[in-house]
Structure formats: structure tokens, C-alpha cells
Amino acid sequence: MVRIIERNGCFIVEKVQELSKSLELTKCMDIQSLVVSHLRAATEGLIKEHFGLEIIDQLFNSFEKKLANSNYVTFSKENTPEINLFIVLKRKAFDR
What we know:
Elements (H helix, E strand, L loop, with lengths): L1 H7 L2 E8 L9 H24 L4 H13 L16 E7 L5
Antiparallel strand pairs: 1-2
Helix pairs in contact: 2-3
Protein name: SAM dependent carboxyl methyltransferase
Pfam family, one: Methyltransf_7
GO biological process, one term: methylation
């Protein structure tokens, strides 16, 4: 994981720690909710800036329903590895 991050070139790995307790997801829907919440955290500001706050909840609720009603095996419990790492990254400064 550290090599992948370093190969990207944008971040410095400040800390890597193994978590003592794994995240237990019992249903496929739990994994889908987790994926949607991470996507929302990463993109909500950009979407809100371009399209307004009014559509945010509806957009991500629709996306979660589409994942739940689809055959995306990527988000099944069987295909989701347990990763018990906590990684702190620092963004590298770039010369402009």
C-alpha cells in the first residue's frame, strides 16, 4: 500500500498503523452504503458548487439505490477484502 501511494507522487506517508479491530460488514447493503458515503465525502463540495445543495441528498440516495438493485459483484462481501490499516498522508507541495 505504501509503495502504491509513493508511486503516485502526490503524498508523503506520515504514519501506517494496523487497526486492532476489523470493520465488520454483515450485508452487501452495508458495503454499498460505505462506498456511497466515501464518494459523497469526496465529491459533495464540487457537486454542490456546480449544481446546488438541493440535489445532494436525492443524488446520493439514488446512487445507493442503483447499487442495491444492480448486480455489481464488486460490492459484495465476498469480493471486498478486509483491510485493517490506518494511513495518514501529507500532500506534497508542488512548484508552480
